[in-house]
Known about the structure:
- By secondary structure, this protein is mostly helical.
- Helix content is about 50%, strand content about 10%.
- The chain contains eleven helices and three strands; from the N terminus they run ααβαααββαααααα.
- It has helices spanning about 20-30, 35-50, 60-65, 65-70, 80-90, 115-125, 145-155, 160-170, 175-185, 195-205, 220-235, and strands at about 60, 95-100, 105-110.
- Strands 1-3-2 form a three-stranded antiparallel sheet.
- Helix 10 (about 195-205) crosses helix 11.
Amino acid sequence: MAVGSRPFEGFPAGARAIAIPSVFFTTVLPRIDDPAELVVTVYFFFAHARKKGQPRFLTYAELAADESLAAALRSQEEGGLRWGLDAAVERGTLLRLAVERDGQEEELFFLNTPGGRRAVAAVKAGRLELANVLPEVGAGREPLPTIFALYEENIGTIGPLIADELKDAEERYPGEWIEAAFREATNLNKRSWSYIAAILRRWEAEGPDYEKAGRDTEGDQGRRRSLAGRYRNLVRR
Length: 237
């Protein structure tokens, strides 16, 4: 332990959690022997979970500007971020995509998941335009509650089985839908994942019909009762 450093006092109750695929610990982690690759890979899961919108990716500029990641790499040789990213891409943990913006090349990094692979393929085929979702140059990271944070705040502790379901839902549905579905369920006092998942499935089939947050009038009471009955039937199917 470094001189003057204090031991970690432990994780607080209700600390936010993120999901990391179990195959990472059984297949990928045992093969990593470079500290920079390990730091970059593990931190990427955290930063990726905080991203807003779809498709979800991180640019090299965002990672290079991340103070927490820089602190974690401080003990490594100069260029640790580049080395760690290159190693993760070579291993197949991350996917790299080079795009051009304002005449300059920009590197985007995706997790090598089904969603990440579909996004990269869509961009290469010209079916997906990233111009509207690329972060502004020099913009800071925008804090956003992840599906895991929303679950802990509105339902409770995340178990291993539900974590896999949450991860799948996060890749399948837009972030705005997920936040709105949690809000809808909370307004109806239906705090269960099965209820929220039913809302998302219905929106996927019929399109979202949620309203913006902040409305809680008497006229909304009847609508909420009607929605409660509708989603109750979906959960029972």
